[in-house]
Amino acid sequence: MRKLLFLALIAVLVFVQVSPGAFAAYDDIATNWARKSILALEERGILEGIFSEEYGPHQPLDRATFRVLVQRAFELDEDALSRVFNNEDADDALVTRSELVTTAAELLGITEANFSLAKWYPTFEDLPEDNDAYLAAEVFNMMGILPTYIFNRFEPDRPATRAEIAHLLSQTSTLQPLLGEISELAEEMDQVMIQVDEELRALTLTSDTRVYQGGAVGGVEQLQAGERIFAVYNDDGEILVISKPQRGLAALVDTEVLMNRLGAAAEAAAEVLTPEQVTALLNGDWQTLSDEVRYELHHRLVDLGVSPWEVDALLAQDWATVQEIIKDRLAAEAADYLDVSPDLVFAAVNRNWQSLLEYLQVELAQRLLTSSWLKEASPGVN
Predict the structure, then answer these.
(1) Cβ contacts of residue 355 below 8 Å, gap of 6+?
(2) Is there a domain that residue 11 lies in?
(3) Is the residue at 227 inside a domain?
(4) Is 213:115 a contact under the CB 8 Å cutoff?
(5) Are the C-beta atoms of 92 and 61 separated by less than 8 Å?
(6) Are both 29 and 168 inside the same structural domain?
(7) Domain region containing 317
(8) Which residues contact 125 (CB under 8 A, 6 or more apart)?
(9) Per-residue pLDDT of the chain (382 residues; tens, 9 = 90+)
(10) Domain tally, the chain
(11) Are residues 78 and 125 in the same domain?
(12) Judging by beta carbons within 10 Å of its beta carbon (0-12, 13-18, 19+), is residue 70 exposed, middle or buried?
């Protein structure tokens, strides 16, 4: 008899341990797909005082409550919270999937400065590149932390369910961003030392670590010492994703356009020159090229959009001049993109700090003189 009672007690204990709703804080999450995430937030005290007996995993959430959850999950002070949320947004408005992912991404430093998806093929058919949620949704999908049922259509304007909110907040609020330079890589490619300001950090690389660069995702074998990277890692020090952000002017302009133009120039040369003339051109032997051929080649390159002096530099193999031309073009593109004086960009590129300071002062003065604020403050000034 005692043996039967003992076996019955063991059975009860086993049932209690494996029963999905045994320790559930809420009555309606026992079989919900986001149960672990909801419980994780509850254990951290993030849901305290907000929900009572039921969590309502299939229901939407208002923005005011979402702000509280985000503040607690990411441990934000009021200043940090105000930088993330627009105070003009209505508190009773429902949180959309777009707002959910963009908020979490911003807090993790997943921005265009650290991730350039210019050559990335969109994953979701309803989320084009110009959508506010595009970058966040693509990177989170790359990291494998979006709900698994979101795979073809993202539906950015759809109200996020409380289950989706709990899942994403639980997944992202335990992650940390990092921007630094790779100092050393282990031979087994399972650990990386990253220099962050004056601190050296050791993080773990796993088979699940994704490395993004130039529109493609690869493995850790793409990493090299000396590279500047942006990484997101978890509490165990394991890196989930690494991005190699572009630096300097290359981050502001599409250098591929310039390279394509040079390629088009080479194709044009091949069309009008014989093999012997191409050899002569490569050797800088202008005497072998007839005046007619030189004129035709020059004319064809100009038609492609290359300026006459650029053509002269290319055909004469004056690589120093070509380098200066490319730098000037990049600086001009950057100035147009930033809406500043080209002289200011040239000074920055050439590291002429005294000139840069002077141009900055001039730029600031011009903007103040033409600003609407100054005109409103001084109505008598024309």
Answers:
(1) 343, 347
(2) no
(3) yes
(4) no
(5) no
(6) yes
(7) 251-339
(8) 152, 153
(9) 444 444 444 444 444 444 443 445 798 999 999 999 999 999 999 999 999 889 999 999 999 999 999 999 999 999 888 888 876 667 789 999 999 999 999 999 998 888 878 778 889 999 998 899 999 999 999 999 999 999 899 999 999 999 999 999 999 999 999 999 999 999 888 999 999 988 999 999 998 999 988 778 888 888 889 888 999 999 999 999 999 876 544 444 444 554 555 555 556 555 656 666 666 655 555 555 555 566 666 666 666 666 666 666 666 655 566 666 666 666 666 666 666 666 666 666 666 666 666 666 676 666 666 655 555 555 555 5
(10) 3
(11) yes
(12) buried
- Residues 188 and 89 both lie in one domain: no
Say whether pTM exceeds 0.85: no
Give the residue from 200, 215, 246 where a domain finishes. 246
**Is 346 within the bounds of a domain?**
no
Angstrom distance (rounded) from CA 210 to CA 230: 12
**Domain membership flag for residue 145:** yes
Say if residue 200 is in the same domain as residue 224. yes
